[in-house]
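Observation: inputs received (chain + uracil).
Thought: call the complex predictor directly.
Action: predict_structure
Action Input:
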Amino acid sequence: MKTLVVEHPLIAAKVTELRDKQTPMPRFQQLATELVGLLAFEATKELDVEKVEVITPVSPTMGVKLTEPLPLLVPILRAGLGMLSGMQQVIPNAEVGFLGVVRNEETLLPAIYADRMPARLDNRTVIVLDPMLATGGSLIAAIEIMLARGAKKVIAITLISAPEGVEAVGKKFANQNVTVVTSALDEKLNEHGYIVPGLGDAGDRLFGAC
Ligand code: PRP
Ligand code: URA
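Observation:
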C-alpha cells in the first residue's frame, strides 16, 4: 500500500476554503469537483497507455490512448458522489459502479447498504472516491470487496485523511496493490471519530443534513 499526500498551492488553497464552516453548499460542491480533478493528475499517472496514430491538420504523428478496460470509478455513497463529476471530466468514458457505505456514528463501524458494482473486476483498476478517510473502516470495507472481485489495483482518492485511517488501511493492505491519494493529512481523530481539524461531515456539507 502506498500513500501520496499531494502538495500544491492550488490544492492547499482549495482545501482551506473547503474546511471553512462558512463555505456554502454550492461552493463546497464546486471545490470538491475541482480538487478531485487536480488529485486525478497524480492518482492516474501510472495508468497504462498504448500507442495510437493521430493525424493533425499538418501531419500524422504518434500519440497514446488509455488502455482498455478503462478504470472503474466507484464513488462511496453518499459523500463520494460529490467527487464523481470531477473524475468524469478527466476520464469521460469510464464506467461507474456504486457502493453505499455508512458508518455507525456510535460504534464507528461501516455497514454496506448498496452494491451496484460488477460481479468481477479481473484485470481492472478501480478508482474509489470518498472525501473522508477517518478510522479507515469504510474504505477498508470497500477495498476488500474490490480485491475479492479480482481488481488488479485500487486507487483511493480522498480529500481529507486522518493518520489513524491511513495507518489502518496500510496495515490491512500492506502487501496489496492499493494506493491512497489525498489532498490533506490531518492531525488526528476526535472522540467522536471526526477528523481534526477536518471539515465536519462531508455528506452533510455536500447534500444537507437530511
Ligand atoms: C463518511 C465518509 C466516509 C466515512 C469515513 O461517510 O464519506 O465514507 O464517513 O469514516 P471512516 O473512515 O471512519 O469509516 P458517512 O458514513 O458519514 O456516510 P455519508 O457519506 O452517507 O454521509
Ligand atoms: N466522516 C466525515 O464526513 N467527516 C469526518 O470527519 C469523519 C467521517
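Thought: report the result.
Final Answer: The chain has six helices and 13 strands. Residues 9 and 104 are 35 Å apart (CA to CA).
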